Amino acid sequence: MNSIIQTPDEILAALPKPKLELVSRISLLPDDWLVVCAGFEDRSIAILESAASEGKSFNVMLINYSPFITENKSEAIRALCRGTKIRISELTYNRQEPGGFGDILTEKIRTSGARIFVDISGMSRLLIVQVLVALRKHPERFDNCFVTYTEAASYPPNEKEAALKLAKSESDPSFSIFFLSSGVYEVTLIPELSSYASAGVQTRLIAFPSLDAHQLTALRAELQPSRLSLIEGVPPGTHNQWRKKIIAEANQLDEIQNAENYSVSSLAYQDTLMGLLKIYGEHALYERLLVSPTGSKMQAVAVGIVRSFLEDIQIVYPTPRDFLKPEKYTEGIGQMHLLSLEPFSAR
Questions:
Q1: What angle do CA 66, 69, 73 make, to 5 degrees?
Q2: 268-319, pLDDT tens digit by residue?
Q3: Closest by CA position to 27, among listed 48, 12, 8
């Protein structure tokens, strides 16, 4: 009898890819954990508020960011938990020294039989990847694990504001476009998301261009990749389709020579996941792959799932130096989503 041994990428490609479910509320049980980050966007606590409205007890793991930003909603989360039956624990995530955090978190919340809901609405992209990789590394893998995500009602800047900034940068070389964050603190590489490559092996950077063009610039300058694959996000709503064009212009993508270009949904994580597997299948044998999850948060989920299977991928991340005012970020609370990770528990 012939036995066929599948490679990790073949295993992942063959697994069913659950859809991102539209939900109107999240219901939690007493043993459940909700992992929530104290961001400054309105949507960062929407899932918690939804679950708390049912008046039931459950566990919250509040992740506080360091360096601290006064507008973060830490105290609002604590106050909500104090006024209900919610049990709260806290951890601090240092953006500038993030190594090992996924394992620290998993050790605190990964108890047998308990469901874990990871709310990515207020999470940094690198933290999303760290948490997902750590969860799948645990003996229980992704059993009883879910991702929750809340869209915003609106995503600044609007088309007119973005076009005006872009036009000014083109006419005045000294004018720098900063839409969400300002500058790059460093290109972060952490041990648990590293990979080994022999000396002389060519590298391929897989990047997600964003409105903050300095991120891609920093990655290319610091890493000096031999090859480049660019995954451009396509917004799900027709009213935001202009963002893809503005991002391409801000990053001057048409001037980057010999780059592979892909366009995938910024919300449907499956598109990004399959795109990454395609790139891996075509290049991983001869090149070291560096992936920088600077796209949407659901695209970061796809990166986390892929990296949890493919340990020869190196994650790199341009950690922002500063953040602009909270009102420059998303506004309001939009559609909530739920994604089961259990189908990805396969060994």
A1: 100
A2: 999 999 999 999 999 999 999 999 999 999 999 999 999 999 999 999 999 8
A3: 48
Q: Is the pTM of this model over 0.85?
A: yes
CA–centroid distance for 345 within its chain: 20
Name the packing angle between helices 125-137 and 101-109 (round to 10°). 60
pLDDT score at 199 = 60
Of the listed ranges 28-37, 142-151, 194-203, the one predicted with least confidence? 194-203
> What is the edge-to-edge ordering of all strands in the sheet holding 227-234?
259-265, 227-234, 202-207, 287-292, 314-315
Query: Residues 6 or more apart from 342 whose CB is under 8 A from it?
Result: 18, 142, 143, 144, 145
Handedness of CA 189, 214, 120, 301 (dihedral sign): negative
C-alpha span between 197 and 10 (Å, rounded)? 21
H or E element that contains 248: helix 242-250
Phi and psi for 142 in degrees, rounded to 5?
-95, 15
C-alpha distances (whole Å) from 88 to each of 1, 84, 92, 105, 148 are 54, 11, 14, 14, 18
Token representation of residue 22: 């539209």
Please name the residue that has the structure tokens 């060994």.
347
Handedness of CA 303, 305, 309, 311 (dihedral sign): positive
